[in-house]
Each structure stands twice: as structure tokens, then as C-alpha cells.
């Protein structure tokens, strides 16, 4: 056993703990691997630390994951790019572990290192590594290999390139579905590095094989590749090779595959151009909107706006709108909800007249939906419609919907609508708000659920910001001040909370003239909880009001509180006093 | 099954005893926790796992293939007689512990209901095990035993208790020392030569089982089955009323794919008894019910597969209806044949083979308990009628087998025209009693069966001994070898 100079002690412990029995200590050491490397120097890092780590691949996953991440940025510590290849062996062994997140991190790190390596090193060490992994006995190695081809391929000789392509082709036909899935996932990435001549011939053949795979899970990953490949191909090739596949997929037996198509379709429209979109993809999309599986309709409905953006309004009205109408009364609430979350975005696309004629009835019916999420989703996007047709046409239906949501028996629904009140206020305007919604805002402050009261208080602050302090002085402050006298201590507390939130918005003058007297009065409350909240509130008021006010009123009040029989009240009062003193010193 | 059967299909197999693990000595009492409750071979047939009521999983590994180091030719020249699968104890681990559900005031037994093997990786074995509520994913791997021989700090000479550890907050460190750990401290260019890495010696290894994931809180009722998909990333778990789909890597959510729970529980007439994925098509699965039907569902059709693709049911013979009809129709186990073409089902009285392309009725039906028909009343009284016997199909699909009472099991030829039907006893001499079961004189049953008999082994000699039931068995995937559980003993036979 070697003894170490005392100054080196922490680093020595750090190194020893690489092999500690406690996983937390090992993790800590691994996360500071760069420190250890610097302490050992570049040469010993290469010759000792890296081989040491290579031996370490049976450690716990958390440690391996951290190690895989650290090694990705390790090039400076082993002596720069010319030594980068020494980092490959430990990462190679991490590429073969069965825990997916470790493997993915190791592949990430390898890609990072590979893209910095010199071309000659790439050929000498990186490419052989990829080949070894691709020929690995266990599927884990082969899965990892799939994610490395796009780095290995660049800068290879033609012979090697041919070999790599043929290995990738084999991986696409591997016995293990996990490997085929990895090959499908990475196909798009690999394709970007390929020369366009091979793209058409070889990659598309692999792609065709994958699209015909018997496993749904492979086919649906192939769908994801469609958009990526479509963008790489010449438009006419894309129409010839990818389009038929997509049209086929949109009628696949498996709903999971159709679901993927519904999610990806709008991206493909860009790749194939407007003509084919019109003739092939619109019918495919219409089919998906009418799919008999609700999950597929949910995905399709959620993309309605994005899809219509790519079409001209005429086509949208002719083909898509009829489906949208049907979806707005779909039997699945989740479909309606997905539709409601995007449909407002169609207003700017269709223009004023069409919106009034076609969309408005749909908005109105969704606003009356029995499912609160649907109504909420419509309300949350109100601004988009407001710009096109103005709010007046909606406001008649809007108000009952808002009131109903505001009184919903699920507090989460109430919470959601409170979040939108400032938005509504800005869209509806002061007049409408005063008449209809003002009372609601006060009602929330006395809700049975704390989260709602809290959100209600916050809402007052946001309203004050929106409409200005003068308006708030008239419409909010009197009610809040009145609440301080409420017999229920929780309501009194909420009034204090509202004051503390509104004070910064209302400014020093109103705070001193209106709020402060009330707060001082509240400091004599019989409930300790009120009193220590007063202490906290006073602390928050210190920066807002003048120093003279602090000295005159606040300090005295806090001093009184600091002699309170209740320990918590004394604690918070002292805290506040300290911060006064702190501010004075500064 | 396959019309042009291979030569072995023609002649009945001669079953021989191969091995026994945990054999009971005469008079030894069986501990409840030792009773085997699940048996499963892995895909290659090189490993066998058993689970017991005590929540333990025991693994066995095949010895005869591993030692076959030489060329294939050598192996083929070896004496034929010794070429049957032989297993040895590999390791065991505690998979489940007894638990208590405080919300429902429910005790959760540790008993292993099912074990399923997953894809091995890097020489490590993976398996799923489940009790009534919780599924666990296990990794069993050889691990090096670490022994650190060289360290920078001699732990025995460490600076007392106030050892500054880098993991402790920096303010606890002595003045200035923590600078070494800050990012901008510059070390000498050659590094610090006195520092060394810990040396690890001792390459001894030991088998370690680690629980990788726990899939919990997804079942309101008792889990009766788990089954892996051929896609290698998903599996299903089934309880009385629901089937859930899981991704092996994601333990905190699952998708409900079958739900037979009626809105009003009083309308409940049928429960799920067993479920299995198709061995090849990842989108297909089958589940059986207490009413004797098997439903094949296609997950491609919709997200919630409440409507089946195919329904396999045998029409009730007219006039035969009795109080017991529904009880004995309940299917206790289903298994797909290896090629996925057939489904084998076991109900209380029979074993039935179904062609998944023919839903009008079973292609074959084998009587297992026909001789018990007159005694159904007694069997009902002592709850034996609710015993859940498992069934298994041979790797080549030519034979089927299932268990019975008195530690007997039966093997039937499943190929066309085969009349093969053997009754074997789970003992060292399986053919000791070639019983003509129906011809057996029936003595007064009630005198023999005492409910909750204190010693399960006491009536070993009796042909209709209802306490010694052989519920669990498995057929080797590639060879004619059967593993079956008689209470706490695991018997293996070959032919």
C-alpha cells in the first residue's frame, strides 16, 4: 500500500473509489474521470486508465452509463485527436452490454469520437470496430453497430465502402427483430452519407425489405425512415419509390403502422411535391381521418392544421373539412380533444369567410362538448381565431363554456381554465371581462382546493399586469381587502397571498396606502399561521416600499411579532428583520 | 400433427427415468414453500427454471451439450443411450417475497405463478417471473468477484474518522485541498507519478441474479399468465379480467389490450384463465376462458382487442348438461405448438388440440380424467375440481402431455392416426404401474380423501390420490424429454 502526500489525498481517494463497493462513490469517481485523467497525465491515462476502464464493463448500469458519457468527451485527456483511437476499446465493450441506455450512450460517444478522428485512424481502427460489432455473437453488439455506419462510411476507401454497405444489408435481414429495428431506425442517417448512385440502388432495396418485414415493430420504424429518405431522393425517384410505400402503409393491416403514417404524412407532402400530394396523399390522409381505430384518428386529427398548411384552401375545404366535421362529433373524446387542440389554427389558413361558414359551427359544437378537455383546448387557442374573425361571433357560446369549466367538479379542470383567464381577458377586452368574469376570479380565491386558490391569487396578479393598476385598483383591490376580514382564516391567508403577489405590480404608493395598513392589522390576528405569513409578506414588501416606510411601520410590526409566543412566528419575523438589516447594510 | 410423420411418430415412445431433483425420502414431510409452482425450459433447451411457492426460482443447466467439445462427428459417434438431456443445478434466487397491500388489506403471496425465459445476451440469462401481482425481470450472470489489491490510501491507516472524501461537500475538506478537484487546477504535465489505479485481482466468478425491472401495480386481479412476444421487446400479462401489454424496457406503463370486465360485476360470467403470444407472429395472441373457449386476437386490428378474430369453442353435447358442466369446461392452460399452427388446451377432463385455421371444433380430443366423471361430486366437495393442470406440446409437435392425480402424467400421440397413449408416474420407475385407468375398481372415495390432509405423501400408493397432483410440466423444445413437478421434486424423463 502506498501512502500519498496529504495534498494529493482527495484525488487519491477519488481514484481508489473507482472500485469502491458503494455504487454512489463509484459513480462520483466516474463522473470526475477527467480530473483523474489530468492527475495521471496523458500518457498514463492512455496506458493505464483506459485499459483499466475497458476491464470494468461488468459494473452496474448507472456507472456504465456515466462512463459511456464521460468517454465521449475524453479526447483532450488522452493527448488529442492522434490518440483518439485508444478510447475505442472501452466504448466497444460498452456497446455490447444489454442495457439499452448504456449502449445508446456508448454509440453516441463513439460517433462523437469517430467524427473527430483522422481519416487514416478511422479506417485503421473505427471501421474494424464497426465490423466486429456487426458480426457480434449477441444481438446487443449488432444493434449498436447499426448506429455507427454513418460515421464509419465517410472517408473510407471504395472497397471498404462496398463492404460496409453489404454488411448493413445483412443487418437489415438479421434473424433478430431487435437488430432489424435498429437497422430501420438508422437507415435514414446512413443514407445521408451515401453517394446518390447507391442510394437509389442499394439503400432503397434495403428499405423495401424493411417495409415488407413481418414484424409490425420493424415496419413502423420503416415508416419513420420514409420522410428522411424522401428528402434525400430526387423528387421523381421519391414519387416512384417512396410514395407507393406510404400509400400502402396508410392501408396497412396493423393500426400501429397506420398510426405512424398519420403522424408523418405531412412531412412527406413536402418531399413529393404538390401534385402527388393532391392525387395520392390527400386521399390517403382522408382515409386515415376516417380510420376505424380511434388511435389512428387521434394522430391524424392532431395533424389537420399542419396538413392543411401544405394544401391550398380550396383542397382543404373540399376534402379535409368534411372529415373534420365528422371528427368533431367523433365517438372518442380523445379524437375530439386532439382535433380541438389544433383546429383553431385552421382559421388563418382558410380565411375569414370560410372560417365563418365552415369552421365556426365546429368551434361552437366543440365548445359545448361534454368532455372538458375538448372545451379547454378550444379556449386555449382562442387568439388564433380572434385574429381572423374577431371574438364577437364566439363570445355568446364562449361565456357559458367558461363558466361551466370554472365550476367543474374536477379541480384540475378549474385549474386549467384559470391558466387561460389572462389570455381570455386580453382577447375579450375589458368590458366583456368586467361583466362576466370578474366575479369568477374572486370566487376562485375561496375555492375548496388550495391549488385553485393559489392559482386564483396568481391570476389576479396577471390581470393587474394585463389591464393596469388603475383598473385593478377599481375592480380587484376592494374585494381582496374585504377578504382580509373573512371569518375563515384560510381565506384571510389567501387575501394576504394575493396582496403579496399584487404589490409589485401595483407599485409603492398603493402598497403603502392600501395594503400596508391591512397587513399591519392582520399581524394582530389570533391565528399564528396568519401572523407568520404577515412576517413573510412584510419581508417581500421591503424592496417595494420606501426605506422610511420600512423604518416607520414594518420594522415595528416585525419587532412585535418577534416577541410572539409562537415559535414559527418569531422565526419568520426574525428572518424578515434580518433582511431589513441586510438591505440597510447594502 | 404433421401428416407425413417422421419415423419416430409411428412407434410409441418408451419413457425412461432420467433425473430427479429434490427427491423426497420416505416419510419426509413436504414443506409448503418447497412445492414447485412453475416449470419452464428456455428456447434452446439448455436451461430449465422452476419456481416454487416460497417465491424462489431455481435454474438448471444442461450438462451433456456443454461438454461436447469435439467435432460434431465425435458427438454423433457417441453412445446413443447417453445422449439424452441431462441437467444440473445451476443457481437459485429469491424472486418474490410475501407482501401486504395496505390499501386493499390483502396479503400477496410470494408463490411464483409463471416463469418465462427471455432473449439471452452476452452470456447472461434473462427471465420473467411473476406472482399474483408483480412481474419481475431477472438477469442471471457470472460476475467476477472483485478483490482490490492495491490502493493509494491504506484503509487501515486512513486519517481516523474525518477522512475527507471527495463525495462529501467541499467545505468539509481541509484548507486548499479541494483545489485539486476543481476544474481549473492545473496538474503537472506528466501527471502525478505517485498516484496509482486500484489493481483488481482474483478472477473467481460467481453467479449473480439481479432484478432488472419490476412491473407492478397493473393488475387488480391475480396474474395467471405471462408470455413474451416474438418481437423480443414486448410481453403480455393476464389476470382474471384483463390482458396488459408491456415493453420489457418500460416498467412504469403498460397498455390494456383485452378487458372483459363487465360494467356491473354481477354480470360477470366468464374470466380469463390463461394467455399466450403466438410463437412467430408478434401481433397474434390467444387467451382461454373459464367457459371453455379460446379466443385468438390480432393486435393489428385495434388498440383495444375486445373483439376476437377467431373463437374456438366446442359445441355442448345436447342433453349432457349438469351442474358440473361449466366447471369442468374451464380451460386451465393453453400452449401454442412450436410452429404456431396448433393450440393445445387443457380442461378438467380432457386435452384438446385445435388447428388455428379451423374454428368449428378441436382436431383431436384426449380423455385424461374420464374415469373421474362419476366422482365429480366428491371432487367438487374437496375443491379438486378447480385444480389447474398445465399441458405441453413436444418440440416436433407430434405428442402432447399433461398431468393428473397420484403423480401421474399422460402422453398422447398427436399425429394423425396415432393411438399412442402412455400413463406414467413421476417416480424413478415411471412405468411401474401401467394402469388401465378406467378399469380400476373404485372404492369409496370419501373415505380416502380427507380435506386438508396433513401429510400429502401419506396415500402415495393410491391411484386416485387427489393430494398428489402433478400440475406443472414442460416438454424440452428440441428433444423428447419431459420435466414435471411432483410436490417439491422435479422429475425428468426421456425417450
Automatic annotation (TrEMBL), chain A:
GO cellular component, as recorded: cytoplasm; cytosol; nucleus; protein phosphatase type 2A complex
Keywords: Repeat
MF GO annotations: protein phosphatase regulator activity
Keyword Methyltransferase: no
HEAT-type repeats, residues: 10-48, 164-202, 203-241, 242-280, 281-319, 320-358, 359-397, 398-436, 476-514, 515-553
Domain (Phosphatase 2A Regulatory Subunit A helical) ranges: 361-552
Domain called Phosphatase PP2A regulatory subunit A/Splicing factor 3B subunit 1-like HEAT repeat: residue spans: 274-351
Pfam families: HEAT, PPP2R1A-like_HEAT, VPS15-like_hel
PANTHER family: SERINE/THREONINE-PROTEIN PHOSPHATASE PP2A 65 KDA REGULATORY SUBUNIT, SERINE_THREONINE-PROTEIN PHOSPHATASE 2A 65 KDA REGULATORY SUBUNIT A ALPHA ISOFORM
Family under the similarity heading: Belongs to the phosphatase 2A regulatory subunit A family.
Name the record gives this protein: Protein phosphatase 2A structural subunit
The organism of origin for this protein: Brassica campestris (Field mustard)
UniProtKB/TrEMBL annotation, chain B:
Entry annotated with the keyword Repeat: yes
Entries under InterPro entries matching the protein: PP2A_PR55, PP2A_PR55_CS, WD40/YVTN_repeat-like_dom_sf, WD40_repeat_dom_sf, WD40_rpt
UniProt biased composition (Polar residues): 427-447
MF GO annotations: protein phosphatase regulator activity
Region: Disordered, residue numbers: 427-462
Keywords from the named record: Repeat, WD repeat
Keyword Cytoplasm: no
Pfam families: WD40
Protein origin, superkingdom: Eukaryota
Recorded GO CC terms: cytosol; protein phosphatase type 2A complex
Entry similarity comment: Belongs to the phosphatase 2A regulatory subunit B family.
Function in brief: The B regulatory subunit may modulate substrate selectivity and catalytic activity, and may also direct the localization of the catalytic enzyme to a particular subcellular compartment.
Stated name of the protein: Serine/threonine-protein phosphatase 2A 55 kDa regulatory subunit B
Organism: Brassica campestris
Top-level taxonomy: Eukaryota, Viridiplantae, Streptophyta, Embryophyta, Tracheophyta
